[in-house]
């Protein structure tokens, strides 16, 4: 039953989206109240308009909405052999979520401390890494946006971008080499006599946190840079002229102005860090408890896609809730982030 | 409290470019002082040096007798009003005005009271809770003044703050600024390229060109007794006749120009043979033939009736710039025809012979 409905949906929904787009375009024209203004279809022609709407509609639906909806649907079903799927045992259930919280699909007498701890640690560490990223990137972005001349800005941009040509996995392995027990740092420390035994950076997750902090620096720098760049230099000078020390200017003039950029940088970094997979897999020590590898294991070690979906969904919801909460606290609207 | 500002041989260089060369002057305590000059003449650089955003390459800036070298803008007894005002867009009017007090750790209550006082001073009571974006251009202007006055500076620096306003409002704000200055009694240093602003508001004016202060004086002396060709041509309309001095005696000089020998006052003590420019203001000319050494005959290019006066344009010594004369209404003079050759005369006592030099571009 599900499969036929699903197929019907897949075929029909793009057309629904086209209809919605059409309706909003018509409405927009009516609200704008310019009868002379040409609408979306007049501007682009019928063929191109339909192509654009269909392409965007299909892309959004097939690539984004439907898979996610399937995941949500999966997460509320029990794991069953292929033959029994869609049968009478295939009912809606909370057992996957129960497993996440209590470590069992049926009992509720004790908590699944291992997974819960990993979950909260991931959220907490992601918050910490986001703050650290902000602390590192704000001065860089400020320097680029307000202090550096055009020539120096170009050099800085290149220096920031080029390291990111190296892919994430290679960068992670490079960190393994640097932080390993016989790696660069340990060798240096041993030779200097600073330590007598190599420090287990990998085992203590120091390499992991370093890698995660580094992984999304660029994603923090650019929204900050954009926001700070649009600040009128005279405002900084005005504040200085009125007697403000530098920290006051940053706290009460620059940062409030750059708030949308800060919010968009921080939410992106937080989401990406909490959802990072490569760095935790490569850099995480044997005892490391990042949540995404656990989700990964649900899918590919336990072969329990239903449970994996539930885990992934929990992480997604928690991240969205946290981000919305922070936006609310700092009084930033979603619209401002996209500016 | 108010303080004087002393520039002592101030030179400011940016690389090999000299923005200000050897500026020396003393701006009195409580004075309304203007720097007047075309854009790029170095006036804003001087202002930034007084406010502390720049240190002079050579020489010293002293405020109230104290050398300001190495003292940042946040530690100087000056407040600057920016050309674009630079109000903080995310703060209310009251928060803007009291920003400097907040920095100084003044309590919220006192700040509120001070904001109300200042809003009364600038005639905007009750607007404290509005956002800056809700105010008109003229109101923003006044908020910027209040914000600068809130920190009780000894010297207020104004960088062409009226340039963004429309003409009517600009003229209104001139009076307003003058009144505020007299009420608070502190030194105002005003930067402008608009001679009207400088002449109407200032006690004294420094006219600048290419990094050099050409003349300092009150508006009347700058208009009536310019000392350089630049000042004569920049402040007010003026008709230049260049040539060489052929006779000089009794404080007068005769210049051999394209219109023959013309006489004027020789304040600069020019000698025979010196290159010189004779300046005659449009209102000094009148229609008709006079003495040979104070009469010019040329073709009428245009007659422009402007109500209270009429502008007449004559073909000038070179094709670029016509000779302009103004004839006030009610003199009963009959206006010459366009295209006719007509004689105009001037009073040699009102004409000035100055050393040749660069003229202001208009």
Based on the model shown, name its key terms:
heterodimer; A: 339 residues; mainly alpha; MetI-like fold; 3 domains; globular; B: 362 residues; alpha+beta; Rossmann fold; OB fold (Dihydrolipoamide Acetyltransferase, E2P); six-stranded mixed β-sheet; elongated
Write the layout of secondary structure elements.
The complex is a heterodimer of chains A (339) and B (362).
Chain A: H1 2-32, H2 40-44, H3 46-75, H4 95-102, H5 113-147, H6 150-161, H7 168-179, H8 184-192, H9 206-215, H10 217-229, H11 233-241, H12 246-274, H13 278-283, H14 291-300, H15 305-329, H16 334-337
Chain B: E1 5-14, E2 17-27, E3 32-36, H1 43-51, E4 58-63, E5 66-67, E6 78-81, H2 93-97, H3 99-103, H4 108-121, H5 137-150, E7 155-159, H6 167-184, E8 187-192, H7 195-201, E9 204-209, E10 212-217, H8 219-224, H9 229-234, E11 239-249, E12 252-257, E13 260-265, E14 275-280, E15 286-287, E16 295-305, E17 309-314, E18 323-328, E19 341-345, E20 352-355
Parallel strand pairs in B: 3-8, 3-9, 6-7, 7-8
Antiparallel strand pairs in B: 1-2, 1-4, 4-5, 9-10, 11-12, 11-14, 12-13, 14-20, 15-19, 16-17, 16-19, 17-18
Helix pairs in contact in B: 4-5
Architecture overview:
The complex is a heterodimer of chains A (339) and B (362). Chain A has helices spanning 2-32, 40-44, 46-75, 95-102, 113-147, 150-161, 168-179, 184-192, 206-215, 217-229, 233-241, 246-274, 278-283, 291-300, 305-329, 334-337. Chain A is 73% helix and 0% strand. Chain A folds into 3 domains: 2-75, no CATH class; 86-111, no CATH class; 113-337, MetI-like (MetI-like fold). The longest helix of chain A has 35 residues, at 113-147. In chain A, helix 11 (233-241) packs across helix 12 and helix 14 runs antiparallel to helix 15 (305-329). Chain A has 16 helices and no strands. By secondary structure, chain A is an all-alpha fold. Chain B folds into 2 domains: 5-224, P-loop containing nucleotide triphosphate hydrolases (Rossmann fold, 3-Layer(aba) Sandwich); 237-355, OB fold (Dihydrolipoamide Acetyltransferase, E2P) (Beta Barrel), CATH 2.40.50.100. Chain B is α+β, with helices and mostly antiparallel strands. In chain B, a hairpin with an 8-residue loop joins strand 17 (309-314) and strand 18 (323-328). Chain B has helices at residues 43-51, 93-97, 99-103, 108-121, 137-150, 167-184, 195-201, 219-224, 229-234; strands at 5-14, 17-27, 32-36, 58-63, 66-67, 78-81, 155-159, 187-192, 204-209, 212-217, 239-249, 252-257, 260-265, 275-280, 286-287, 295-305, 309-314, 323-328, 341-345, 352-355. At the A-B interface, helix 11 and helix 12 of A face strand 6 and helix 3 of B.
């Amino acid at each position: 039953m599900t499969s036929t409905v699903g197929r019907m949906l897949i075929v029909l929904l793009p057309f629904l989206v086209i209809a919605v787009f059409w309706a909003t375009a018509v409405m927009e024209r009516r609200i704008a109240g310019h009868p002379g203004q040409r609408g979306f279809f007049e501007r682009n022609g019928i063929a191109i308009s339909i192509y654009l709407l269909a392409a965007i509609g299909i892309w959004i639906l097939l690539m984004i909405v439907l898979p996610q909806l399937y995941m949500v649907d999966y997460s509320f079903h029990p794991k069953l052999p292929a033959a029994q799927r869609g049968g009478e045992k295939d009912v809606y259930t909370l057992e996957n979520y129960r497993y996440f919280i209590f470590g069992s699909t049926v009992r509720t007498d004790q908590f699944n401390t291992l997974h819960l701890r990993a979950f909260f640690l991931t959220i907490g560490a992601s918050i910490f890494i986001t703050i650290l990223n902000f602390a590192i990137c704000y001065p860089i972005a400020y320097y680029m946006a307000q202090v550096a001349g055009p020539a120096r800005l170009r050099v800085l941009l290149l220096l920031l971008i080029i390291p990111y040509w190296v892919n994430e996995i290679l960068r992670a392995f490079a960190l393994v080499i640097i932080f390993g027990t016989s790696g660069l740092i340990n060798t240096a420390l041993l030779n200097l006599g600073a330590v007598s035994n190599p420090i287990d950076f990998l085992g203590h997750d120091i390499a992991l946190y370093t890698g995660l902090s580094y992984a999304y620096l660029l994603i923090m720098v650019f929204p900050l840079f954009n926001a700070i760049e649009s600040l009128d230099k005279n405002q900084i000078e005005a504040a200085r002229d009125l007697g403000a020390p530098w920290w006051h200017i940053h706290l009460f003039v620059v940062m409030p102005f750059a708030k949308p950029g800060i919010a968009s940088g921080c939410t992106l970094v937080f989401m990406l860090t909490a959802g990072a997979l490569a760095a935790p897999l490569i850099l995480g020590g044997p005892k490391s408890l990042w949540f995404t590898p656990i989700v990964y294991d649900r899918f590919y070690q336990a072969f329990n896609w239903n449970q994996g979906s539930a885990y992934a969904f929990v992480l997604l919801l928690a991240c969205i809730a946290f981000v919305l909460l922070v936006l609310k606290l700092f009084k930033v609207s979603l619209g401002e982030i996209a500016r | 409290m108010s303080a004087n500002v002393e520039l002592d041989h101030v030179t400011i260089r940016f690389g090999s470019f000299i923005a200000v060369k050897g500026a020396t002057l003393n701006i009195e305590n409580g004075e309304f002082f203007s720097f007047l000059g075309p854009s790029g003449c170095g006036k804003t650089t001087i202002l930034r040096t007084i406010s502390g955003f720049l240190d002079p390459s050579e020489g010293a800036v002293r405020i109230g007798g104290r050398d300001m070298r190495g003292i940042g803008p946040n530690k100087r007894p000056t407040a600057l009003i920016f050309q674009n005002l630079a109000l903080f867009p995310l703060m209310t009017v009251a928060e803007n005005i009291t920003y400097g007090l907040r920095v100084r750790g003044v309590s919220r209550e006192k700040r509120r009271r001070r904001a109300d006082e200042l809003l009364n001073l600038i005639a905007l009571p009750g607007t404290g809770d509005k956002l800056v974006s809700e105010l008109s251009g003229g109101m923003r202007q006044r908020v910027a003044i209040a914000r600068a006055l809130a920190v009780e500076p000894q010297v207020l620096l104004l960088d062409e703050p009226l340039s963004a306003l429309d003409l009517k409002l600009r003229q209104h704000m001139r009076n307003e600024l003058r009144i505020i200055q007299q009420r608070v009694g502190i030194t105002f240093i005003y930067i402008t390229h608009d001679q009207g602003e400088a002449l109407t508001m200032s006690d004294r004016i420094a006219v600048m060109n290419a990094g050099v202060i050409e003349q300092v004086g009150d508006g009347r002396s700058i208009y009536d007794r310019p000392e350089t060709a630049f000042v004569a041509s920049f402040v007010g309309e003026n008709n230049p006749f260049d040539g060489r001095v052929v006779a000089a005696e009794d404080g007068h000089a005769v210049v051999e120009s394209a219109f023959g020998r013309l006489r004027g006052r020789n304040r600069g003590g020019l000698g025979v043979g010196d290159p010189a420019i004779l300046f005659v203001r449009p209102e000094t000319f009148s229609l008709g033939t006079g003495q040979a050494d104070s009469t010019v005959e040329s073709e009428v290019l245009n007659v422009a009736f402007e109500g209270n006066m009429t502008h007449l344009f004559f073909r000038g010594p070179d094709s670029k710039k016509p000779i302009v004369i103004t004839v006030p209404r009610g003199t009963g003079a009959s206006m010459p025809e366009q295209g006719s050759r007509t004689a105009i005369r001037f009073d040699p006592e009102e004409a000035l012979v100055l050393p040749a030099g660069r003229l202001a571009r208009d």
